[in-house]
Amino acid sequence: MPQSPREILRRIRGIKSTQQITKAMEMVAAVKLNRIRLQAEQSRPYVDRMKTIMCALRSSADELTDPLFVQRPEARVLLVVITSDRGLCGTFNVNVINAAKNFIEQHADKQVSIVAIGRKGNDALSKLGCKVERFFPVPWGATLESDTRTISIYLMEAFTAEETDGVYILYSHFANVLRYLPTCIKYLPIPPLTAQERRDLLRLSADFLIEPSFEMVANQLTPRYLETSLYHCIVESLASEYAARMVSMRNANDNAEEVIRDLTLTYNKARQASITKELIDIIGGVEALKG
User: Fold this and answer.
1) Residue 55 covered by a domain
2) Which of 38, 160, 239, 263 could be bridged to 174 by S-S, CB 3.0 to 4.6 A?
3) pLDDT (tens digit per residue) in 62-115
4) Do the domain assignments include residue 269?
5) Residues 81, 96: Cα–Cα separation, whole Å
6) Per-residue pLDDT for 278 more than 80?
7) Is residue 227 part of a domain?
8) Looking at the domain assignment, is residue 272 inside a domain?
9) Confidence (pLDDT) at 125
10) Cβ(196)–Cβ(4) under 8 Å?
């Protein structure tokens, strides 16, 4: 249905108003991404080295009695799913939710419960009929460390109370601005070193001198390691979220520019046709008066 120049102009103004919002959201996401991306990249070496130390402790001392090291048959599994509280971030949440569905299908012979960090994951998994044990908003800003500690303590207490036999974390690993991969890691119990990791340590001639004892060091380091590991997963997920939102808003801006160009061309054609029609009417009236 042909539109009048006034209607087309109204649509152009509406799209420009929306474009201002998407541009502002892109700028905010870019600023937050630069801040959180630095935290994610700088924490990786520390988390990897701490994981190696904890796994080495677990492998070197079989007499450790810390309940967080106890291996049990996994009849009940707790899956921590990290998504976002808000949308407008492309396929970020969809990819994580699909990965959670695949995890549940692969562990169909076990009782899988969900701890949702992020409103989007909580809403989606609840609608799918999954058993969501607990929901936490995504930690951010000044409360990031304290909220992460609260979640970590909850997971440790659930495992030591034998409410679950294994805890896994599903999050988005930030590779670059255009690539963030859903990644699942085992959180509890802390596993021993794999054969390949043992060979790597021997190749590096790594040796640990533990004072005063394996037991005391493990009891002190384990809660800190688990909190740091969860903190790193949340930071990686936040970096992926802001990268996805920045790219999504940039694509929205580009699409808005294209629509505005097309509407401007249509507006000019409609305006030209309207002017031509008025000229024809005027010329026709003048000719009629002459006749």
Assistant:
1) yes
2) 239
3) 556 678 888 888 899 999 999 999 988 989 999 999 999 999 999 989 999 999
4) no
5) 8
6) no
7) yes
8) no
9) 94
10) no
